[in-house]
Design a protein that fits this description.
- The protein has three helices and five strands; from the N terminus they run αβαββββα.
- The protein has about 130 residues and is of the alpha+beta class.
- The longest helix has 21 residues.
- The protein is flat.
Amino acid sequence: MEGIYFAGEYADLPIAMYKRSGGNLANEILIFTEFTIEKSAQGLKALEFLSWWARDLSRSGENVQIRSIGLPPVAGQRTQLGSTLRFWFEAYIVTEKEDMALVLSEIGELSNSLNSSIKLYKAALK
């Protein structure tokens, strides 16, 4: 895959992973959610918390990550730098067949984990 250019909607995919391994694992599904943060100390604190949570999940064996996504600094006459930053929370789910019940169950477990972490560390989030 070396030298392959990912254009348009494919440019946001985890390109390093695809180039490194030649693609996803057999029977692996990538699910993601995109989010932005408020441009404030509170927004940075929320991002740091989510980053810790994803790192903790990864350390325990879950195939999850948070990636930052940004567009080129300038497009034509328009400066984009400072206005396109967004983040993806990604989870890689392996299933023998595209079993949506399993995928939804995994999403539910991730949601429960995040809610539990928010409750546990509520005081730190203020």
